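SEQUENCE WITH STRUCTURE:
===
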Amino acid sequence: MIDFSQLDKVIHEKGRLSIMTLLTARSPRAFQDLKAELGMSDGNLVTHLRTLSKEGYVRELKSTAVDSGRSLTTYEVTGAGKGAFKAYLNVLEAIVKASKPG
């Protein structure tokens, strides 16, 4: 029997799942790069990043671009975020296995 309650509701939302997938594959990523790759508006992306940050899954990094001197905001997955994402994928894998005919 599959326990769907084990799916992390914070990660399960489509936008946050997309962010976690991208940041887990390659971190850190600039806000503008995330926005372009995901096709999200500034407000939508900020909202999802705040939710993930509040859970301790991602962290915001502020720096200054060397060439332009402009402020640069990047995001990376935390250790807690990597663990939560791996656990989320394990639950999905169990669901896929259970759905295949024996």
